[in-house]
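Is manganese (II) ion placement plausible here? Inputs below.
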Amino acid sequence: MKESLKRLLKSYFFFFAVVLTLKFILLRYWLLYDFNPFASFWFEMSLVLIVISMFELIFKRGKLVLYLFLDLLLSSLFVGMLIYERYFGTIPTYYDLSQLNQVGSVNESMWILFEKTDLVFFVDFPILVLLWIFTRKWSYPSIKTSKLAMTGVLVGSLIVTIVNFQMNKDEAVLDNALFAKENGFFQTQFVQYYHENSKSETTLAFTGEEQNVTLKRIQELKGNDYVQMSEHENFGIAKDRNLIVIQIESLQDFVIGKSINGQEITPTINQWLGDSLYFPDVYQQIGSGNTSDAEFLMNTSLYPLGNQATTEQVGGMQLPSLPHMLGDEGYHSVTMHADDVTYWNRDELYPALGFDDYYAKEFYGEKDTIGFGPSDGLFYERSMDALKEISSNHENFYAHVLSLTSHTPFEMPEEKKGLRLPEAYEGTLTGNYMQSVHYADQVLGDFFEDLKEAGLWDNSVIALYGDHSGLHGKLLKSEDQDLLKDFLGERYSLLNRFNIPFIVSVPGEKEVTGVVDHIGGQIDMMPTLLNLLGVEPDTIYFGHNLWHYSENLLGMRYYVPTSSFFNKETFFIAKNSRFDERILDLTSNERIENDFENPSSHFEDERKDILKLLQWSDAYFESLK
Ligand code: GP9
Ligand code: MN
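Reply from A.M.:
I modeled the complex. Tokens:
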């Protein structure tokens, strides 16, 4: 017995079991701010033990290679998860990790977040080499003992894993990190995978109902009385105009109208605001599909799926969408983006949305590259050429124009830095962000001029919004927080982060100008534009005409736990692995307290309502497949 225990202690099995347990404990501590060795052992090691006991049972030779491979795989995964969390502020799903190999993707900018301390996950490799050099051998448990013991470990671990899964599988994963804290990283992935693949069970709450009845129900949940769009004020004021919708990469609202060192950051936009409708209280609603989710939201007014890019699910679908609805009115619709069209699965998204054509990387070439694509300047020039041609061949067009230059890490070539920044901003993420947004605004101005020159300005509706935040996560150092606080005159909060501008202009129409402080999200953009164009949607949608409705209930998931919401006054952030519920006042940008013990709290009602809206949107999306 003593002998066999000795052999076990000196086995690879034992060595790697201990090392991996320690690594899981560290991961849990760094990622979830939770020190709980038992949870790491119970939830994570139960699965690892299944794998390594099988190594022992199945293989006679070459086990070390298998162990090393597993160790390396997990260690790299852990570092990937940490970097991901520093970048996005949320822990990745199996889906996100499978996307990390995309070319030209965001992961290039993520590597700046690698920290030396991450190397601790690889420290056992040199230790192993040293051990081997000094001892030149490593004993195995004898096959006999090992077989019995390993079978015991295998069966025990299988039972634990299956029991854990059975207990968790019907629980909703409202927040990845919180779920992982309570049930383990692996269980989070299993349960999510299980939910994603048993969607057929989700029922469409409004099957067989008249479209108007459903829209009324949706509107009621948001606190409004439903009014058919054709009865809204200024319905069709821009009838038969072209539609040009510009999505600016990483554009946040806090720079609009602001100056630094006496220079406006976005002078083109600021000047344009005078002739436009400006919605300053609009928030991003993207999930893990980032830019592509913003494209989806804009064109469908449906909720993105959250835990995976919606574009992954749209292959072969025909979505009720802006291009489809405008197509019925005789519009030719195109989308323009200077990246590889396969990135974010856009080659499947665009046909599903019903765009007649797209212009991507091959069209724009690779000259004048900034970051991972041609400069916005070049992009707008080439897009202008295409738009001229499109307008000469079609009576009306809709163009969705997606910029790229102002993407993280916002590093601009010297000659394109147009701002003279105060010393303290130089070289900081905040300073770089301002420079790149300033550039994006400057070339936008050239694009506007070209549209005017080509005679396309006056007969179009021009809209603009930001796809999502640029300043977030641990990319923001404490110096950035200080600079932003100084710049904004208040703490840079999640509200500042998620607030994006939405601007719409109908040149020549004085009616369509002014600041509208109705709270909205990306989901509201399509209906707002359809109202101006005088097209009553012939489908279910979850946003509304922002100009008409003042109450709202907006969901966001992935970047905040599911069931978080915005209403007219507040941003309610549901509990996650680090914080209890947090409520931010939209006006003061300060935290407010809620009586969570009181079940009649209206926040609880709205939390349930937003879950309902999300479930309806998901089920509707599913029913379209
Ligand atoms: C990729 C570009 C940027 O094509 O739109 O995407 P993001 O990293 O912001 O999702
Ligand atoms: Mn983006």
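Short version: Residues 106, 290-291, 339, 343-344, 404, 407 surround (2R)-2,3-dihydroxypropyl phosphate (ligand 1) (CB under 6 Å).
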